[in-house]
Amino acid sequence: MEVARMHHRIANRRKDFHLKTAHKLCDQGQTIFAEDLNTKGLTRGMLRKDCVDAAFGQFLSLTEWVCWKRGVYFAKVNPNGTSQTCPNCFAAVSKGLEVRAHDCPECGYRTHRDHAAAEMVLHRGLENVVAQGLWGTETACQVGLSGVYDLDKWRGAGIPNCEIGKPALYP
């Protein structure tokens, strides 16, 4: 009985941490892209215990739910090769897991490996949004694709920031 109570308490703390992190991400950005990880495959690998303890699948599903609830656009992208592709010139740069820096021999772009992978996730997410024609469409929360105009401004496209805002509670 005591062991079951302890496991329940740990699960509740993990879920609380995941929800707080998801809310913080939604506060910081209006568009969130994540890798579409094979969470069941992660539980069979060499780091299976760590992956199960971290509950990546639970975090992704809770983040998707929080984004939907708060009107933040959330999409999963293909994770294949995100850390093996240069985000600057899109050349394939193979490296082992022990290499923590990204150094492209094609264009000379240098950054941390995780930062380069995050940039590739952003590129793929934006490509999917444009390719699917979701630019300016409505989501289930009756909000336009929030954050898209912020991303354009951040990227230097110069789209006006006048249409950005929180959804009105009453029309």
List the helices and strands and how they pair.
Elements: H1 2-28, E1 31-35, H2 39-42, H3 48-54, H4 56-70, E2 73-77, E3 101-103, E4 110-112, H5 113-131, H6 148-155
How would you describe this structure to a colleague?
- The relative contact order is 0.12.
- This protein has a two-stranded parallel sheet with strand order 1-2. A two-stranded antiparallel ribbon has the order 3-4.
- It has 6 helices and 4 strands; from the N terminus they run αβαααβββαα.
- Helix 1 (2-28) crosses helix 4 (56-70).
- It is mainly alpha-helical.
- The termini are far apart.
- It has 2 domains: 1-76, no CATH class; 78-143, no CATH class.
- Residues 138-146 and 148-171 have low confidence and may be disordered.
- 47% of the residues lie in helices and 9% in strands.
- It has helices at 2-28, 39-42, 48-54, 56-70, 113-131, 148-155, and strands at 31-35, 73-77, 101-103, 110-112.
Query: What percent strand?
Result: 5-15%
Q: Which consecutive residue ranges, at least 5 long each, have pLDDT under 50?
A: 138-146, 148-171
**In DSSP terms, counting alpha (H) and pi (I) runs of 4 or more, how many helices?**
6
Rg computed from alpha carbons, rounded to a whole number of angstroms = 19 Å
Backbone structural class: mainly alpha
H/E element string? HEHHHEEEHH
Name the overall outline.
globular
Largest sheet: 2 strands, parallel
What's the short version?
With 171 residues, the chain is mostly helical.
What descriptive keywords fit this protein?
single chain, 171 residues, mainly alpha, 2 domains, two-stranded parallel sheet, two-stranded antiparallel sheet, 6 helices, 4 strands, disordered C terminus
